[in-house]
Design goal:
Helix content is 35%, strand content 14%. The longest helix is centred in the N-terminal third of the chain and has 14 residues. It is globular and about 45 Å long.
Length: 221
Amino acid sequence: MKTRGPLTGLLGGSFNPAHGAHRRISLFALEALGLDEVWWLVSPGNPLKREAGMAPLAVRVRSAQAEASGAPIRVTAIERQLGTRYTIDTLRALKRRFPRRRFVWLMGADNLAQLHLWKDWRNMAREMPIAVIARPGYNRRALASPAMAWLRRFRLPASCLKNRAEWSAPALIELRFDPEPRSATAMRQADPDWARRFTGPPPRDAVTHSLIPDPAGPAHA
């Protein structure tokens, strides 16, 4: 019988900066879905976010590494190496590069609320299961979103996905736990100079093992 590869959760974002909520939802998803590990995809850039106030990629990676320390979380800026600009292209490239792994996309309810604005979002849902983590203030918008109207028919309980012999997509899993109020926006407002705490030599990518130069290259999504 063919051996299946590790179950890997993918959490994408700017991580500007990374914070405890990122770690908490990752560990919660890891347990709820029976994942082997979670990869934090630190994006070189995001087409849905303004560049103003965005720290260099290496700074954001160091911030994520500090927050992920001691957990089964790998911090990577692999999208910079893949040269992909949109999430749909990143997911396809990762599946080609790691054919033995099984991936699940992790996102907050805030991202589900705007998923219909993402490039080829329906095809993205067909690439791998999507697990949505509740987030205060966004759940109502997420439930009323165009993406949810389409994804609703593909709902599965976490236990069903966790125990499946083979994962299939589209599949939508809703994960609910204690509300997590922390956000990168609030942290930047409380500490505008946060990036200074994460200066240093180029960090090493935990997936590609390459050094990440500082400052970052061209914007990505």
